[in-house]
Amino acid sequence: MSNILTYSMKGVKHLVDFKENKISKLQEEITDLKGKISKLETFIHELADEECPKEYKQIVLTELETLWL
């Protein structure tokens, strides 16, 4: 009977480890997405300025391609 209990506990530990790893990866993804949102907010604010040079707009387009592709 103790072998079954030991095997069951190992299975539970694997499940807990899997869930903790999944949570950690999701938290990393959230942090990455928050950074991208912050960059987009900055771009929007800068591009809304009427004095924004066309050259800068091209730089922003290049940055957007690297962010999302």
How many strands? Answer: 0
The arrangement of helices and strands along the chain is HH
The Cα radius of gyration reads 23 Å
Low-confidence stretches: none
- What percent of residues are in strands? under 5%
pLDDT averaged residue by residue: 86
State the separation between the terminal residues, measured CA to CA.
Answer: 54 Å
Major sheet description: none
SSE layout:
Blueprint: H1 2-48, H2 54-68
Helix pairs in contact: 1-2
Your description of this structure?
The chain is 90% helix and 0% strand. It is mainly α. It contains 2 helices and no strands. The chain has a domain at 21-68. The longest helix is centred in the middle third of the chain and has 47 residues, at 2-48. α1 (2-48) packs antiparallel against α2 (54-68). It has helices at 2-48, 54-68. The model has no long low-confidence stretch (mean pLDDT 86).
